[in-house]
Amino acid sequence: MARPLRIEYPGALYHVTSRGNAKQKIFRNDRDRKDFLNLLSQVIERFHFVCHAYCLMDNHYHLVIETPEGNLSEGMRQLNGIYTQRYNFMHSKTGHVFQGRYKAIIVDRDSYLLELVRYVALNPIRAKMVEDPKDWMWSSYRPTAGIDDVPSWLSTDWVLAQFGSTRRRAQKLYTLFVNEGITRESPWKDLKGQIFLGGMAFIENARKVFDQAVREIPRSQRYAGRPLLPELFPAEGGDRKARDEAIATAVSWGYTLKDIADHLHIHYTTVSKVLKRGGDKK
Known about the structure:
Layout: E1 12-19, H1 30-47, E2 50-56, E3 60-67, H2 72-90, E4 103-107, H3 109-121, H4 123-126, H5 141-145, H6 157-161, H7 167-180, E5 191-192, E6 196-197, H8 200-210, H9 219-222, H10 229-232, H11 240-252, H12 257-264, H13 268-281
Parallel strand pairs: 4-6
Antiparallel strand pairs: 1-3, 1-4, 2-3, 5-6
Helix pairs in contact: 1-2, 12-13
């Protein structure tokens, strides 16, 4: 399977995870976690990231990061690179701390940001490390819920604004929302093409924003969520006009002439002629 391309553009929102090499711990103690959060705050300030949520586990971490300047790779290189140096120095180690590249999922804010904030907060519960998210000191849950002070680099305004106009009421409803998610299904069932968490309209708009970068994306990711050929074409016995219109639609979705010809059991030159006739009419 092809590695997902790094997709970056101003205003993109990501769920970022990075795991320890060979599943080993990346945080051995609370001092490591404090060092990481201190470094994260510096990266957020330097690269103008917006951090909506985070959670530090033992052998991995989660971040929900927005990049107004479309520079995720630069910031992540700084974050993981410098943390590796510090970790190795503190623990007299050498070599890799993280397992390969970090994973970045592009997220539709309107449909999935709240779900991801909840998913991140509940990670220690799913891992059976604590029984209540408020008992885990190393996530954004406590400051967002109003239990701890909000660090200057953590953005809670958008999340809380979804729950109420007053901060105290919003924090109360936020805690209820998170706890209700313990029995809910993971949002990852909706992941498309390895890198998109969003609906068709979101993916289509992302294509337009990516523009040139989209041409380099593996086909499975570029056309994530597109309808299957049997869904595009009328049932057998349909009229020729409907078939020809479906051919043009299939091409717009990135299907090749051969893909379409094989599906229709016709020669690809026939498909080409259909497209040419459509172009001549315009």
